[in-house]
Amino acid sequence: MSSQQGIADSDVLDGLSIRYLKFFGLWSVINEYRTTGKRNGIIKLKLFITLLLSIPYIFSQYLSYFIIEVDLQKATFLNLHSLPALQICSKVLVFWFRIDNVCKLYNLIRKDFLSLPEHKRDGAKCIYMKITKTSNMLCKAAFIVNSSIVALYVMQPGISVDYILHHTGNMAAVKGGRQKIMHGWYPLPIDRSPYYEAIFVYETMLIIWDGILLAVYDSLFYQLLMCLYAQFTVLGFHLSTLKIVASQDPNSRLNDSNSPIYRELYKIIKDHKKLISYANELRSIYNPLVTIILGMGIFVLIIAVFQFLFGGTRSPLFIFRSLLFLVYQGIEVSMFCFGSSSIEKASSDLQFAIYSSDWYKADIKFRKTAQMMMMRARKGVTLTALRMYPVNVETIMSILQFTYSVTALMSRKAEIK
Questions:
Q1: What is the value of pTM for the model shown?
Q2: How many Å apart are CA 221 and CA 209, to the nearest integer?
């Protein structure tokens, strides 16, 4: 890629917290790639450790269907943790293979991305602060919930080794014996030493690494969405406050192409074209990511609800874990659905922002130029899944309805057996 400037802390949108990206090294990865075009050792190490820890676990769970006895209830049990492991692998790989595009998109995080006149910067700052506050809040919620899940599983392991190896049906019927951290089978005698201890250490490392990185990469990708939303909103503010001020010069004319309002309109059109090109590139990069997040999120929600309702145990710890899984998947899906819906609204609202400007005082040339921009802004920008399905608030309701339907069907089959 062509060299770009690094992003200093003072360049970041007002109020946006990048402390998670800094603490986990991704901020230095982004800045170093922008300036040198090379991936540094941090991202290489993260990719290596993630794949090294996650792939053996994922492979073992799908191999287990051919080795041990599995029914519907146990199958959902084994898949509950393999899907989040697949999620983090997909996020790390998307960032690795599309790092050139992602680092370019990080121009959106700059507060000088748009060409704003000096007297409107205070108004833009208020908009940036309001939107970045929401972004910071959701990223913090993702970290808190994920950290709670990790802490609970590590400090209170409650998965019966005997159930995984020898039983099906109601997991609560298997009492006592050794307990492990994650819902997983391995091609090893995991009920005997030293394999049991080795698996315990391995699962501790896996759940801590993958659990925390899930929240880190959610923040990395979600903040770009919110920055795009903020830039569209500020452009709408700039457009709606476009006013014609009577000149003191009797020789000046409103239809002069060099007049201030024409110069500002041309800058707005250039900024809008730039935003649309960035939005299209972001949608292209995020399409596989959003497809994976929504698809796997649906499966995790179904499994968590099924185990919560039909797992056959009323252990408060088990119920709390299931609820935390539901909360995290709800947060992750909501982050991208609400972010996409916000961008769609902000980008389409530009056509209404034109009505708030002084278009009616301008000449026919100005009106035609503004009308062209209205036509471009008529269709809002949104993320897509599977390259054709728009992702927005309605997607959440569809996911919840689908989760309820599939869970009800699975429960009936479990009862019949």
A1: 0.89
A2: 18
